[in-house]
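Exercise: predict the fold of this chain.
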Amino acid sequence: MEKAPLSMRKHIGIFGKTNAGKSSLFNALLGQGVAIVSEVSGTTTDPISKPMELVGYGPVTIIDTAGFGDVSQLGPHRMEKTQEIINRCDLAILVKDISAEENSGFDFGTVPVINVYTKCDKIESKALMEKKQKHPDSIFLDGYSDVDILPLREKIKEMLLKQQRDDETLIGDILKPGDTVVLVIPIDSAAPKGRLILPQVQTIRDCIDNNITAVSVSLDMLERTLNEIKNVSLVITDSQIFKEVAEIVPESISLTSFSMLLANKKGKMMQLIEGAKAIEKLKDDDKILMLEACTHSTTHEDIGKVKIPMLMKKNTGKKLEFTHFSGYDFPEDIQRYSLVVQCGGCMINKKAIQNRLEVFEENNIPVTNYGVVLAYLNGILERASEVFIKNNI
């Protein structure tokens, strides 16, 4: 569990005013002194993330943030960073000094919030009792020992378990136990030597969890494998070789990509399919926003910086301008873009992607993802998305 990628962990953010006890709580939940704790306001300047194993639930990521009310020169910038963290959190812990004012200064939107009152040993018992009666779902802390924070741990576990859904699987809602899937895995210059990339590993693990037989092959071995293995239910390919694979796989066998599986798990498949269709409406000098969740060195085979732009220009015959952002970075002036293309999202968590998709939807900006757009550009989008539509996903 310690090696579970951040993108597969639930993100829990700790928020509150300066000096409310956020960093002390952060350290207590982790069981170690990661964040600096001081009576001086503003000691947490940038968000600090730390993975941990939440007993009874599983791997999570805890994030400590800069406090609201930072009056330093960098205060406004730190608040922007803190608000960005909210946009990718699955759960927020709002820390409040029980003697301070209630207003937090943050917009949590649809993110579930646990209110935690600290320094409860500093007020009279009568006042404390009134506060508890007024806020029965809140957590009240005298200190930060294991015993003190146990109720909070249980509350976190309870709320995260409520968020779990059957759709967390990649293919368990597409195939049934006993089915056979063939995974086509090319090895290009960007692939780490001796390793598979994360979406491929996740798919193999998901097959094991759902009692589905997975056979991994290279492109060269695909035709032979399909001739030897009967009753293949689905072929999943790296989206970079969609066209070559589609020419080999019979129409009777369903076909999709690792990237489309991730898009379906983390986003809204129909929104991404409709976004790809917007390509046919692009005009000269239109701007395309390319969002890559991870950072890596660019090669001649790079899918986001080389292959997709090249294919899109060839397909449309238009002069298009491409802008690239990596990680959680996100431009403010999104209205200038005619189309957004998000990567598969294997290194970014589900909440962050869903928030992005909602922003684009609210601003009427078409959005798609790498796998969907490559299927469209290769003329096989209808076939590659059929397995999701057929299963009403």
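Check your answer against the key: Residues 6-164 form a domain with the Rossmann fold fold (CATH 3.40.50.300).
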